[in-house]
Give the backbone structure.
Amino acid sequence: MSSIFKFYYDLMSQPSRALWISFKLGKTPFKDCPVALRKREQLTDEYKQINRFQKVPALVDGDFHLSESIAILRYLSDKGQFSEKLYPKNIKERARVDEFLEWQHLSVRMSCGYYFMQAWLLPINRLAPKPSAENIDKMIKNVESNLSLIERLWLDNDFLTGQQLTVADLFGATEIEQLKLCQYKVNEKKFPKVFKWLQRVRQESNPYFDEAHSFISVKSKQAALAKL
Amino acid sequence: MKMSLKYYYDLLSQPSRALHIIFRLSGLQFEECPVALRNGEHLTDEFKQNINRFQRVPCINDNGYKLAESVAILRYLSAKGKVPEHLYPKYFVDQARVDEFLEWQHITLRVTCAMYFRTIWLDPLLTGRSPSASKIETLRLHMERTLDIVEEVWLAQSEFLTGPTLTVADVFAACEIEQTRMADYDVRIKYPKIRAWLKRVRAACNPHYDVAHQFVYKISGTGPQAKL
């Protein structure tokens, strides 16, 4: 009997979205356990019992508690509860996907996540002032140096690790997509391959991609209007 | 017979040291291909074309299959049966625990220790300028925030990070923390659990641990028993 695990997440968290889209797309059933980061639900003692690191996403499968999105997907894959298309079983194909998943932490995730936090998340919650134009430029430069690595090193094919969509693409794209909140859009002229790849990822993973990003879409439009 | 696995590394790179120790502990046969980062050997076109498109170490070439990213390399070799189960468990529940640490460390332990090391040791060497006292203080605070989690969460109940015995998680973490000696940081003062755990990791990995850290010891002017 295969058990249905509990999935704790907030669609405002990038790795939460990447996993959520993977589950929907790959028909992985899960028990929906949303955690509202905006209400700081992750900081309660109750949630600490679920995930000792007090972050999302997290999984509870029977009495097994696990955090870290990539560890979670590997665990589910070994249990046969994760799409083989999205995370291949073949050793060499899997290693290629792993190469991206490990690479993105200190490159795409760090630079996009930092920009998102400093330019949108902290100011909107009045936890920090809006960064200076000079600092924003620095952050954008950092993001773009990583977009340029994707452009030059990862996009010889339609998707990051070959001709098929995998979790690597979902982790990469969800990170970049959230920059809409900072009113940042990937420039087609500067990054033509990245631009087209993002469209392909969205197409391949819709309707779930849009559903996972609906809050981000609404908020980024509001923010754009507020500026006018 | 020609050895088919080439390992490109520099013992001054933390993930290079971690894999070097893991390979030796595993009794893995490999061709040593040291890359002198200080001489910019990784920045040549030849390196980019033939060895690693990201121009970093560590990386491998396994009979023509090129792979970067230390954690991806470890998983690939484990899947090929080259890493013993006690270092990287095959049973998926135990493996998930180790994976949880390997994924957790990137933007926590790795970033903060590496930034501390780089700003205080490497950058002054390259630029001739020393960081301000307040900059050092900020970096130390960031680093200690993650060291607190290692001390209080990861080492809360067990001798090693993920259970009663040494795994690759411990090797990755210890190599990261050891490096801060070069920036004159002594982790042992504030963190009794980390202090005792580092001794256990070294004992479980030697003689390979000391071989991999020979430059760290030499440059910091401290052996493992020395007072800083």
